[in-house]
């Protein structure tokens, strides 16, 4: 049975006086991939970042409305943003490994969140995370090499492994393949498909083909509004809204 992981109600996001997200309400389900699509500047990344309070780091950004993770108010004073971002992890456009070894990239999170008691536990978490991210076989003999020495696609899988290492419930991905070649992209897409059974995944993508390939739900944003949200197959084959139809048929973008 489908379970809702995140509920957003009447969410507005402002940068100073400028409104970037206008009254968005959406339920994001567990155990599947939700794609956010829409023309450049429509607010996809802004809304994505509001789900784990990454907008808190932008000085003049302001979020109103309600966002709940498993019923808990994400913006409550009692919610620790650092703990929240471990529960709702994030993978960015450009792979951004720490300037540390492959091992340390993964070990850092579990250590600071107190998820491991000793070196054996830590080794196990590092291995499991790299296995889940499909990177273990490629790096197991060079765990102490710099993470930045990996290829772009490997670095992105390292960043996914780093997110997984702290046992998140949700993984937010902001155009995770935009800096990758088609082969590395295909590898990440396969990985997203494998991971979806254990996490709720939300992906912002400019590629409608990618949204169609990897997601089960698609949300179409336009000028800060959520125009249409539904099963990916429905949104792509029988869009209910004219604007969605125009966008997916390439009439504007
Ligand atoms: N840090 C910021 N300060 C001020 N305005 C911003 C900031 N980030 C985004 N915006 C504005 O908010 C609006 C939504 O931007 P956002 O990046 O969320 O859109 P997007 O749909 O993800 O775009 P793209 O597909 O080009 O990445 C845009 O008008 C943008 O210029």
From TrEMBL:
The ABC transporter domain, residue ranges: 6-248
Biological process according to GO: phosphate ion transmembrane transport
Keywords linked to the UniProt accession: ATP-binding, Nucleotide-binding, Phosphate transport, Transport
Pfam families assigned to the protein according to its UniProt record, in alphabetical order: ABC_tran
InterPro entries: AAA+_ATPase, ABC_transporter-like_ATP-bd, ABC_transporter-like_CS, P-loop_NTPase, PstB-like
TM region(s), chain numbering: none
Keyword match Transport: yes
UniProt GO cellular component terms: membrane
Source organism superkingdom: Bacteria
SMART domains documented for this protein: AAA
GO function term, MF aspect, one: phosphate transmembrane transporter activity
Protein name per Swiss-Prot or TrEMBL: Phosphate import ATP-binding protein PstB
């Amino acid at each position: 049975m489908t379970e809702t992981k995140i509920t957003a109600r009447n969410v507005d996001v402002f940068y100073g006086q400028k409104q970037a997200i206008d009254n968005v309400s959406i339920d994001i389900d567990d155990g599947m991939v939700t794609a956010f699509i829409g023309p450049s500047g429509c607010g996809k990344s802004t809304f994505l970042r509001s789900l784990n309070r990454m907008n808190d780091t932008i000085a003049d950004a302001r979020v109103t409305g309600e966002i709940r993770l498993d019923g808990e108010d994400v913006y409550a004073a009692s919610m620790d943003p650092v703990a929240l971002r471990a529960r709702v992890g994030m993978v960015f456009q450009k792979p951004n490994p720490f300037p540390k070894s492959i091992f340390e990239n993964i070990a850092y999170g579990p250590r600071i969140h107190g998820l491991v008691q000793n070196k054996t536990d830590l080794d196990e978490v590092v291995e499991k995370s790299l296995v889940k991210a499909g990177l273990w076989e490629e790096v197991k003999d060079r765990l102490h090499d710099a993470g930045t020495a990996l290829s772009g696609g490997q670095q992105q899988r390292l960043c996914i492994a780093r997110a997984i290492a702290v046992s998140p419930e949700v993984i937010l991905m902001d155009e995770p393949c935009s800096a990758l070649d088609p082969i590395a992209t295909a590898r990440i897409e396969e990985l997203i498909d494998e991971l979806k059974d254990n996490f709720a995944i939300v992906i912002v993508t400019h590629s409608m083909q990618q949204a169609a390939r990897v997601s089960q739900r698609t949300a179409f944003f336009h000028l800060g509004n959520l125009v249409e949200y539904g099963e990916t197959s429905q949104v792509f084959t029988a869009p209910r809204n004219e604007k969605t139809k125009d966008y997916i048929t390439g009439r504007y973008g």
